[in-house]
Amino acid sequence: MTTQEQNLPVHIGIIMDGNGRWATNQGLPRSAGHKKGAENIGPILEHARARGIKVVTLYAFSSDNWKRPKAEVDTLMGLFRRYMNEDIKQLQEKHVRISFIGDRERFEPDMIKRMNEIERDTAAFDDFHVLLALSYGGREDLIAAIKKIAIDVLDRKYLISNIDEHKVHNALSTHAVPYPDLVIRTSGEQRISNFLLWEIAFAELYFTPIYWPDFNEHDLDDAIEAYGRRHRRFGNVTP
Ligand code: IPE
Ligand code: IPE
Ligand code: MG
After folding, report:
1. Closest-CA residue to 157 (of 146, 166, 148, 144)
2. Is residue 86 part of a domain?
3. In the prediction, which pLDDT does 3 show?
C-alpha cells in the first residue's frame, strides 16, 4: 500500500470556482462556463468514488450568489433544474446517496419538490454520499444550528452547560457526514467564501489555479496525492 492510499481523505469538499473566467478567456458568455462546469460534475464524482472517497460536498451556489445579475441567476437555475431532472438520474442509478444543503426555501417549488424526492429516493444508499451545497452559506448554517439548539434548551432537552461540539455538529446541515478532510478550491482564489465554516476547522486546504470546467480526473488525483503527503496533527505533536 502506498502512503497515498493509507492517507486517503474520507470526505472531500470542492469549491467549484472559475466558470465565468473560463468562459471569458475563450470569448464565450459566462453562461457557457456554467454549462461546461455542470458537465464536469459527473466525471469528477465518478473518479472520486473510484478512488475510494466516501463523501463529496460540492459548493455549487452560495447564499451570496443570489446577488449576481438576474440573467446569470436565471441561467444557473435553469442548469440546476436540468441537473436535478436529468443528469442526477445517472447518480441515482449508481446508488449514490444525494443530499442538498443550503436554504432550499429560496428555490422555485418544483425544485424544492425534486430536492426532497431525490433525498428520499437515495436515503438508503450508503456507499458514496454527495452533498450539493445550493444557496448555502456557512454562517447561515451556523445561525440555523444556533436557533435549533436554543429551541432544544427552551424545551429543556438539555442544559446550556451540556452544549458541546457534538451538539453543534448535529444541528448543522452536514450532521450526517464526517467533517471534510480535504477542501479543494479551483480557479486560483485562495479563500473559503463562506463554505462549511465550522466543519473545516482541521481540513487540509488545496488551491489550484485551474478553472473548474478544466479540472479533470488527473487534477483530482494530484489533490488527493498532495493530501497524502500532508501531516495532520490536530494540535498534537507528530509521534
Ligand atoms: C463558480 O464560478 C460557479 C458559481 C459561483 C455559481 P464563478 O461563476 O464564480 O466563476 P468566476 O469566479 O466568476 O470565474
Ligand atoms: C464561491 O465562489 C461559491 C461557489 C463556487 C459556488 P464565488 O465566486 O461566489 O466566491 P467569491 O465571490 O470569489 O468569494
Ligand atoms: Mg467565482
Report:
1. 148
2. yes
3. 45
Within a domain: 167? no
Q: Residue 75: how many CB atoms within 10 A of its CB?
A: 19
Task: Give me the CATH number covering residue 100.
Answer: 3.40.1180.10
Strand partners, 101: 133
Is the distance from the beta carbon of residue 104 to the nearest atom of ligand 1 less than 6 Å? no
Q: What local confidence, expressed as pLDDT, does residue 5 receive?
A: 56
Nearest residue by C-alpha to atom 14 in ligand 2? 193
C-alpha 17 – ligand 2 centre gap (Å): 6
Identify whether 64 is a catalytic site residue. no
- Grid cell locating 132: 450539493
- Residue 205 belongs to some domain of the structure: yes
The 10s digit of each residue's pLDDT in 26-66 is 999 999 999 999 999 999 999 999 999 999 999 999 999 99
C-alpha 5 – ligand 3 centre gap (Å): 32
- Look up 17 and say whether it is catalytic: yes
Domain that holds residue 197: 3-137+179-228
Compute the mean pLDDT over every residue in the chain, rounded to the nearest whole number. Answer: 97
Picking from 186, 222, 228, 220, the residue whose alpha carbon sits closest to that of residue 204 is: 228
User: Is position 146 within any domain?
Assistant: no
Banded model confidence at residue 228, pLDDT cuts 50, 70, 90: very high
Q: How many domains does the chain have?
A: 1
Model confidence pTM above 0.90 = yes
